[in-house]
Every structure is written in structure tokens, then in C-alpha cells.
Amino acid sequence: MTGIVYKSTGSWYTVKTQDGSFLECRIKGKFRMKGIKSTNPIAVGDVVDYDIENTTDETTGVITNIHERKNYIVRKSVNLSKQTHIIASNIDVVFLLVTINNPPTTTSFIDRFLVTAEAYGIEAVLVFNKIDTYSEETVDEQLFLQYVYSEIGYKCLRVSAQEKKGLDELKAMMMGKTSMFSGHSGVGKSTLVNALEPTLNLKTKQISESHSQGQHTTTFAEMFDLSFDAQIIDTPGIRGFGVVDMEKQEIGDYFPEFFALKDKCKFNNCLHKEEPKCAVKEALEKDEIAWSRYKSYTQILEGDEEQYRADLYDADRKASDETRKS
């Protein structure tokens, strides 16, 4: 029998069966996907085969096989540097929720996420959330960021779950698709899902005032069926985002504005660093490429591991602000 994994809590998986019911399943023994060193062999969104098990008072299942994934999105496991954590699989579009100051979402975090989405062939949309809380200065900053990413080609939405702004446009982008919401803890993922589908009534928490960071509300990824012909995967808040297993030569290809200039570089293996006649560096000097994007690129290129492990909101925020002023 075949079903789709809707929830993963580590040892048990909730599988939606073909008749629409849900079955708690486990995996037998070691389960490894070819070529993926992952802390979680099965992810929400996986299509799996399972057998029914009637050894206890209630009916459970045993997962026997994972179907080939259309795609998946991963990040480095923070505690195990050699391993990855698969956040979700078989995604049509991922919405990265961005907040300017409650909590702050840094450009390096946005860029690492977008690079990963590009690498795994998943459409990414930036959702600027909590616009009802923005001051005049914050609005300027948000609109500048929106301009930067719109120019690259990324779709951007301005949303307020509290005031129900932008929800119809968001729903239209989700219809008929499996979407994933991601972002830092406290950016309002669960609140936004509740605004889209009030009957779900997901738990939400307030921002921690002392740290301007969100508290983890969602502790594991879970998929929900929505009333407007859509599925949403709600994910735990992510502190940092480690880019996984990319060769230096390919990183620039996942920055669309760099990739578009690649053929104009003198050297076909140009890393856009010290090489002469680099089209990317020339575009950077003419302000045709955002300095914040180039900074993110060099951090990833240099394997700046501490960028995703440490809680660098303040330091990275200040650096990002200075970049924007220059």
C-alpha cells in the first residue's frame, strides 16, 4: 500500500493513506536513501510504501520503501556537520517568511535559503510578513529588499496575517500545489497558516522580548490539507541555514544574476573573486548587483561555517545595514 508522509516526529510517521485516513507508521531497522547522509531518512512529503501491522491493540504500519523524490530541501544538521537534515520533499513552491525587525531576517540567511532552493529546483517566493507593524523607516528597508530580490526575478509578497492583507494573492499562488512555509522562529509561520485556514488553529507564541527572537512553536514538520485545494508544510523555525555539499564552481550558478553574466567572464571557471575581466565584479562596481548578495556569495564560497551555526542576528544585521548604505 502507498501513502504520503504528513508528519514526522523522529521515530513515528503519520501517513495519509489512499482512502484519506491517517496511519501511524514506523520504519524497520536501518533505512538509508542512496547518496544522502541524513539525520532523518524519511521526510514530510515523501511517498512511501507500507505494510499493515496488527501486533498491538491499535493498527499501525511499517514503511518498507520510499519512492523517488521529485525534489527535497535540506540544510546542514547543526550538531552533526557531516550530515544533513531533510526539511521536506516533493515541494512545488517554498515561501520564505521574512521580517525586518521582529525578529530580524538577515540577507545572508535569505540568500543561503534561496541558493538551496535553486540547487534543488524548487520555486522560492519571499513573503514579507507583519507589514502592519512596520514604521516608516522599516517600510523603506522592506521595500528596498523587495526591490533587490524582485530585480533578480524572485516573486515577493507583502502580507499581514493580523490585518488579512495579501492573503488572497498568497492563496492564489498556493492553489493546486504543495507549499512549504519556512523562516526563523517568530516570523509568523503558524499565525499565517491560521489566517489562511482558521480551523487548523495551530499553536503560536510571542517573540521573546529579551532576544528579539522567536520561540520555537512548531517542533516538527507537518503537512496540512487546506480547504482551497492546497497542501501546506509547516516547518520548525530555523536559526541558521547551512548550505550543503556544493562545489565552489557551482555556487555562483545558484545566484541567478551571477549565472546570467557567467558567459561574459574571461575565464569559464571564474569564481568572481580575484580573476581579471570578471563580468560579475564589473556589474558589482556599477551597482547592477547588490553588494549584500555578493557578500553572501563570498561567505558561502569561503565555507564560513560559523555563519549558520552561531546566533549572529546583530552582527550580520549591522554588516548588512552598512552594505546597504554604501
Explain what this protein looks like in three dimensions.
The protein has ten helices and 13 strands. A hairpin with a 3-residue loop joins strand 12 and strand 13. 27% of the residues lie in helices and 23% in strands.
SSE map:
Elements lengths: L1 E7 L4 E5 L4 E6 L19 E7 L6 E7 L5 E5 L7 E6 L3 E6 L8 H13 L3 E6 L7 H17 L2 E4 L8 H8 L3 E5 L6 H8 L25 E5 L3 E5 L13 H4 L4 H4 L19 H7 L5 H11 L4 H4 L3 H13 L1
Helix pairs in contact: 1-8
Radius of gyration, taken over Cα atoms and rounded to an integer in Å: 21 Å
Mean pLDDT: 81
Secondary structural class: alpha/beta
Proportion of β residues?
15-25%
Number of strand segments? 13
Question: Biggest β-sheet, characterized?
Answer: 6 strands, mixed
Task: Based on the model shown, name its key terms.
326 residues, 6-stranded mixed sheet, 23% strand
Provide a brief overview of the structure.
The protein is an alpha/beta fold and 326 residues long.
